[in-house]
Amino acid sequence: xxxxxxxxxxxxxxxxxxxxxxxxxxxxxxxxxxxxxxxxxxxxxxxxxxxxxxxxxxxxxxxxxxxxxxxxxxxxxxxxxxxxxxxxxxxxxxxxxxxxxxxxxxxxxxxxxxxxxxxxxxxxxxxxxxxxxxxxxxxxxxxxxxxxxxxxxxxxxxxxxxxxxxxxxxxxxxxxxxxxxxxxxxxxxxxxxxxxxxxxxxxxxxxxxxx
Amino acid sequence: xxxxxxxxxxxxxxxxxxxxxxxxxxxxxxxxxxxxxxxxxxxxxxxxxxxxxxxxxxxxxxxxxxxxxxxxxxxxxxxxx
Lengths: 211, 81
Prior knowledge:
The structure holds 2 protein chains of 2 kinds. By secondary structure, chain A is of the alpha+beta class. Helix content of chain A is 49%, strand content 14%. A 5-stranded mixed sheet of chain A has the order 1-2-5-4-3. Chain A is globular and about 75 Å long. By secondary structure, chain B is of the alpha+beta class. Chain B has a 4-stranded mixed sheet. In chain B, a hairpin with a 4-residue loop joins strand 1 (17-19) and strand 2. In chain B, helix 1 (2-13) runs parallel beside helix 3 (44-52). Chain B is built from 4 helices and 4 strands, in the order H-E-E-E-H-H-E-H. Chain B starts with a helix and ends with a helix. Chain B is globular and about 35 Å long. Chain A binds chain B through residues 69, 72-80, 127-128, 173-177, 179-182, 184-185, 188-189, and chain B through 1-2, 4-5, 7-8, 11, 18, 20-24, 33, 35-39, 62, 64-66, 68-69, 71-72, 75-76, 79.
């Protein structure tokens, strides 16, 4: 009788659904904890300031693509299938903190670094991400699934949301469009423009408040 | 970051296209494949030298930071058809 060999992707999909309860628990724990830790900040915001906390569970196909895309040539080695596990991903459970003005980013970073002592920093690859922070580590809700939190400016975070939901998510075949050099260049320019916009806005607000 | 545009132009001029599924630039006539990581980690001069390099043009030549295994090469070649 002929046997059907399972692909690496099939094995990883099975692993994903085995991990899913843990991913949910870590996400919920991180979300609740971060909201709690940042309560003093959110209560003290001025009228023009913003603090937005969002969380998400990485979807199955996104997780597979991330794991594959982290490899040069975005290809799993079929002879080394045992090497691949979704537990190596740092962001199966993720929380993103968006803040404005940017001075709040460092304040939030300080608070969360104390709360998550021992978590590893994972700097953004994009230099143009500007002042932004990213850390990963484990919570007591799972020994298998890592969690990640990011702290970024409001406009940068919203741009990433739009970029992800409009460009990549609906078209799996465009998952790696961000690797195109022209797209990298344009993305960098957008982020730089958003920083300039935020910077200018902050200058105008400071002036308005001082008069 | 402007160098990204320059490198993209070099690849365009040499007839390379981007493969959205594998994060590679390839030219079927030249039988050459560049990973995005390799392109980012090498300057324009090195990129042009690789494009000019005579590889015989029979087998695919992979320009990766880390030489891919034979099984990975086979996978990519199978995807390219």
